[in-house]
Amino acid sequence: MASLASPLPRTSPRRYAADTWPAGPAARWGLRVALALPFVAVALLSRAAGWVPAANEALADRGALVQWGDSGLSWIASVFPPLSAALSALLGGSTLAMSLLAAAVLGFTLQRLAAVLVREGLGPWATAAVVGTLVLTPPLYYLASNDLVSLLGVALLVLALDGIAAFVEQRSTEAGFRAGLALGVAVMLDPGAWLYALTLAAVAPFFARRAGRSGRRANEATVAVLLFPAVAAVGFWLYASWWFSADPLGGMEAATPAGWLPGGAGASAAEALRQIALALLAAPLVLVASTVRAVRDPWSLIAPGIALVGLYLSLWLGLREAAGQTWIVLTALYVLLLAPRNPRPRRRVAIVVAAVAQVAIGWLVVLTSGGTLGVWARAVLGG
């Protein structure tokens, strides 16, 4: 076990980037389309069942406030986060178009996650099983059909974490900048993303040390790379809102679906903790991998732990709903930060078993719960 003072183990360089697998462009695009189509089908089934996507409807209402060509910009503060409102306006406020865009984004995101697993050497069966935990369970389908903003936030978080992993393992400064830019775009799309930006920046010195960069300047540079795009974006938006609007914080105050700290600070904190605990219990892949890491390399748990703190804070503040988002983020964290490299055959079998168990638990929780996700799943299934 490595102590804080001992040299950290070097990781082997990545064999190829996540966006170059499969090797052939036709195969790569074919995989993306194949992964996106089920989400298109379920979105259409959800509409046919008469389900009203409340989050996308709220996004459409925000998009309707955008007034292209208006030089007064008095509406600017009320559409926070601005990029998602602008995107809604470009889509004409169509919730169907939002669902189709979400499916397309998922085609790219899932292909990237699969590529990460392939390059880490998990093998075809374990890779298919881990990706299957997302494709064969309802939470991601619910997000794609009902909440474009949160889905885009999760997709950009995946891109940022993959960039951070490349920064650490390949010592790639470019990947670090890519992670920072992803977080900068995310905070302009998803009101909960800034918490991820803050928590990941807080652990930036750890990333710098793992990448072989030490010293105060290296820590400051890493913090700046990860945090500056997000801070600059939010800072510019606040300045523009203050300059053009009488209520510069109005959009931020309305950014949460059920209000800030729903039910009060104490009740919201307890509920957020319950949601995190339930999501962990429903994610055997994460539990097993975290246990192994805790024994062999506990310092490697700092990054996923900090991301988990960001997730908890977003639930506590009311910036995220509990409808499967926690479980999705935990699974993404497994792929990007916890999955083993080149596991032996026995461990690959263990990964497949844990993934199958996670799919079964995921369905059991959804179909036996009385929450929004369960009600939606039963409606789509005709129950």
Number of domains: 1
Order of helices and strands: HHHHHHHHHHHHHHHHHH
Query: What's the mean pLDDT score?
Result: 86
Q: Helix share of residues?
A: over 70%
Quantity of strands, as a count: 0
Structural class: mainly alpha
What Rg, in angstroms, do the CA atoms define?
21 Å
Describe this structure in words.
71% of the residues lie in helices and 0% in strands. With 383 residues, it is mainly alpha-helical. The chain has one domain (19-380). α1 (25-48) packs across α4 (95-119) and α7 runs antiparallel to α8. The longest helix has 29 residues, at 216-244. It is globular, with a radius of gyration of 21 Å. Residues 1-16 have low confidence and may be disordered.
Task: Please render the helix and strand layout as text.
Elements: H1 25-48, H2 54-64, H3 82-90, H4 95-119, H5 123-135, H6 138-146, H7 148-170, H8 173-187, H9 193-202, H10 204-210, H11 216-244, H12 250-253, H13 265-281, H14 284-296, H15 302-317, H16 325-338, H17 345-368, H18 372-380
Helix pairs in contact: 1-4, 1-6, 2-3, 4-5, 4-6, 4-7, 5-17, 7-8, 7-10, 7-16, 8-9, 8-11, 9-11, 9-15, 10-11, 13-15, 14-16, 15-16, 17-18
Keywords:
disordered N terminus; 383 residues; 18 helices
Quick overview:
The protein has helices at residues 25-48, 54-64, 82-90, 95-119, 123-135, 138-146, 148-170, 173-187, 193-202, 204-210, 216-244, 250-253, 265-281, 284-296, 302-317, 325-338, 345-368, 372-380.
